[in-house]
Each structure stands twice: as structure tokens, then as C-alpha cells.
Amino acid sequence: MGISPVLWQFLTKWLTTSALWPQEASTIAPWADALYIFLWLVTLLGLVLVGALLLVFSIKYRKEKSPVATQIEGSTLLEATWTIIPLGIFLFVFVWGAWLYFRIYNPPADAMQVYIVGKQWMWKAEHPGGQHEINALHVPIGRPVQLTMISQDVFHSYSIPAFRVKREVIPGRYTTVWFNATKEGTYHLFCTQYCGTLHSGMIGDIVAMAPEDYQRWTEESTSGMSLAQNGERLFASMGCNSCHNGNATAAGPNLAGVSGSKIRMDDGTVQVATDGWLRDTILNPSQHVPLGYKPIMPTYQGQISEEGLIDLVEYIKGLKTNYRVQQTLDTSKSNDAAPMVPEKVTQ
Ligand code: HEC
Ligand SMILES: [Cu+2]
């Protein structure tokens, strides 16, 4: 990192114990801090340089010594120097910052998924196993955790200073952020987007636990139904399975394996079935009509809560082969013919 580890430890320890600096409790934290300290040092250098020159020049060129002002016509070399050096520093900061940004906002593929729903004024967390929490989030250390977040009302922002991550939580759209916690402990969770009267109370605890403690916690706080199981129930109770049952004669496309695939639309475009896309097809189906299908799916706008949508998305993501729902809930004779699948574009 360029800084000696001893000096680094001393610096962060001093700053942490002096409460000026949040703890560093994620893999990204030292990197974010290094950039921050670098900016700080560059600023300090600029301050000292300008301050010193100001002082030296005002003494050297004081009135008694130089009573008559001389006209200086400029120096190309000097001007080029003070343009190119700062430009180099700024570009360096830009590249460093961009690299950090992409690292923070591109979750690794093997990250554990947790869903966050923000509303005035609380944070709800949903683990795939069905554990629900309010104003708290339990995570294991030493493992990447991806948060998929959405707001039920206004803009919020999910911020964990000790992990150096923060992301806007927006109505109508999933946003994601990820981290890998390194130290057991309880850390602050803040809403950092002013969201109304009780905004300052929209806080909580992030509990980073050893993997075995986290395992125990998931077992103790399970609701008995995973998100996907809740989704399967909803899928049946909302009548989705009347059109999406995997039968060759079904009115809707087979949803098995849809998640993550590229789908050719009737307007010729190709859309990628991300989590957000799946959510949006349920709310605005007429805007996502795959080639060969009629826009007959009704909109479910206003009929399913964000939690319900998360359950459905989790359920659809888990559909790898033909539906279990077909066996358990569809009483009509299942068709052995190959199910109808929308045309997938192979990459
Ligand atoms: C009346 C039949 C019908 C019902 C009921 C229905 N769908 Fe659909 N669904 C379709 C059709 C037809 C399409 C493709 C055309 C479109 O998007 O309108 C589709 C598309 C989709 C897609 C996009 C998949 C792809 O490959 O393009 C998803 C996801 C989906 N539906 C989920 C659901 C869910 C979840 C429900 C229940 C809340 C539901 N559908 C209810 C008929 C239906
Ligand atoms: Cu808020």
C-alpha cells in the first residue's frame, strides 16, 4: 500500500480511539481510507506550498526592497509544469477512485444475497432463508455479502461507515452494494438521505459474526419458510401458475432458467433477466413482451408488496428445471412435451 504497516496501524488506531475515524471492518475499508488519506496529504501539500510561497514572496518582494513593480511576461515552462503535475495527480485520483467504485458496486458472483427494504422510517432485512429483521442486519465475517435494496416510499440511503459502503435506496428500482466484513462486532447503520421527520431515527445495528455464530443465528431466527417458499405460495395464490405452469400449451413463457438469461423481445431488442427485470415484468409486463408472446399478462401494480415481489423474484430465480409448482399445485395433467421457452440468446 506504500505506507509502512506499523505507521498505518498507528494512524488508524489513533484515529479510531480518538473517535475521529470509524473502525475499519471490511476488506474495502483500508482501500477507501488510503485514498482518503492520499487526498488529505495532497491537499495539505497544496496548502503548505501556497502558504509558504505567499509568505516568502511577500517578504522577498516587499515595498522597501522592490519599490517599482516589474512586469513579468510569463514562462511557458513554468505554466506547463503547474498544469501537467496537478493534471497527473487528478488523473491518478480519478483512476484510483474509479477502481474503488467498481470494486464496491460490482458484487462477486459467489456473494451471499440479502434483501433490504427501506421505508419511512425503518430498515427491513430479508435473508434468503426467510429470516426477517428490522433495523438490524446479521452477517457472517469473511464472506462477501450482497445487498439488493429497494424503497417502499421515498429515497433513502443505506450506509455502514465501518464498512465504507453506502448506496441510495430508491423506490421502483433495485440497487446493490456489497462488502466483506473482516471483524466481529456491532456497527452503525445510518440512513444518509434526508427522508422526512424521523430520518435521524432511521438507524440500526450491523452485527458481524463469526461464520458458526451466524449459522446458529440463522437457525434460531428462521421463520420456517424461505423467501422462495413464500414466493411459491404467492405464485399459486395470485394465479401466476395458471399461465406459467411450464405446460406446452401455457399462455405464459416457462420461467425455469429465465433468471440471468438474455431474452429476445418482440421489438427485436435483447433484455437481460436481472432481479430488477423480473420485478419489473410483474409490474409492467407490457413493456417486456418476449418474441412470440402476446401482451396478455395483467399488471400486478399495487397488488404485491415489495416483500412479496422479493419472494416472487427469489422463487423465479430458483426455477432451474421444470416447476415444482406444477407437481404440487397444478391439478391439470402435466404435459410431458418440451415446455415452451422464450427464445434465449446464447452469448
Ligand atoms: C394471463 C396469463 C398470465 C398471468 C396470470 C401471469 N402471467 Fe406472467 N406472463 C404472461 C405472458 C403472456 C408473458 C409474456 C408477455 C408479457 O410479458 O406480457 C409473461 C411474462 C412474464 C415474465 C417474463 C418472463 C419472460 O420469459 O419473458 C415473468 C417473470 C412473469 N410473467 C411472471 C409472472 C408472475 C410472477 C405472475 C403472477 C404474479 C404472472 N406472471 C402472471 C402471462 C401471464
Ligand atoms: Cu431514510
TrEMBL record:
GO terms for molecular function: copper ion binding; cytochrome-c oxidase activity; heme binding; oxidoreductase activity. PROSITE patterns: COX2 (PS00078), COX2_CUA (PS50857), COX2_TM (PS50999), CYTC (PS51007). Its EC number is 7.1.1.9. Residues 109-220 form the Cytochrome oxidase subunit II copper A binding domain. Residues 226-320 form the Cytochrome c domain. The keyword Protease does not apply. Subunits I and II form the functional core of the enzyme complex. Electrons originating in cytochrome c are transferred via heme a and Cu(A) to the binuclear center formed by heme a3 and Cu(B). This is Cytochrome c oxidase subunit 2.
